[in-house]
Amino acid sequence: MRRLVAILVVLAPALAHAGPMTFMVSHGAAANPITKLGWGLLGLSIFVGAFIALAVLIGIWWKRGAGEYDARGWPVLSHGRNGLPWLWIGVPVSIVLLLLSAIWTFYVLGVATAAPGHPKITVEVIGHQWWWEVRYSEFGYPRRSFETANEIHIPVGVPVELHLTSADVIHSFWVPQLAGKTDTIPGQINHAWIEADKPGIYRGQCAEFCGLQHAHMALYVVAQPVRRFKAWWTHQLQPAADQVTGLAGEGETVFRTRCAICHTARGMPGSQGKLGPDLTHLMSRRTIAAGTLPNTPGNLAAWVSDAPAQKPGVDMPAEDLTGPQLQALLAYLKTLK
Ligand SMILES: [Cu+2]
Q1: How far does the centroid of ligand 1 lie from the alpha carbon of residue 212, in Å?
Q2: What is the rounded distance in angstroms from the CA atom of residue 237 to the CA atom of residue 240?
Q3: How do the domains of the chain map onto residue ranges?
Q4: What residues pack around ion ligand 1 (CB closer than 5 A)?
């Protein structure tokens, strides 16, 4: 009993809302039908398994030796009074249960793929080895847009349409509490939608093996009340701070020469690199390197000086920066709020 309580205490956060990644509890209209289906089919399977086990046990203990036997002592399949009625009941019941499960599954597939009505917000998500590029753009004119990485903000209670594709190999976008899996395939745009019914941070993960660092390709969906989401949006639209001076100014020069070839700090001339994540608002993100490290000054320094040590195989090279260069660079990165 005490052990059971201990297990429940350990499991509790997984069952509570917006804890670690879990497919057992969902938090939005796109994921709820899938979760219900999952529990429903699990319940049905348990029931059928238990029923069959029970029938077998009854057959063994209760009707043991009750059938007819041939000359060699082998049982003769009974078509008599006992066997046939069960056949007539068992086959239709199985057919009906399987058909209902199939119909339920197809219904859920339909709900899970088709967004309700016209989405107010569309977000482009592009899988890379091994991070997620996220692009937002405004409807209307002028059509301003911004990019971020590994962190998707959405307003609570609003369906958000996702346009999913990949820059290299096939990945799969999966935030189990908010939606089912959708593959990201190079040269093809797949549509999916997510909606969160509660504010919270929902973890997601690439769900299609995509190379060495597949396990380090996480993302977070941050669901916020509409007002806070709008504030975030307005902030993200702003370019990187210009006019940085002092140590950060020196760091900007290092950034321009060593990093800008792969990274963008929007607004900084000559920084339009596309190979790595957009860093314009790097400091507003909770993690770096696709959920691999919390975004702390120490982790940032470790990452910038030797990224492959943190994530072997990554496309970002180890930079042989001098101590002062690294300090200046970090001071500059801190201005990317
Ligand atoms: Cu992947």
Answers
A1: 9
A2: 9
A3: 31-113, 121-237, 246-334
A4: 171, 206, 210, 217
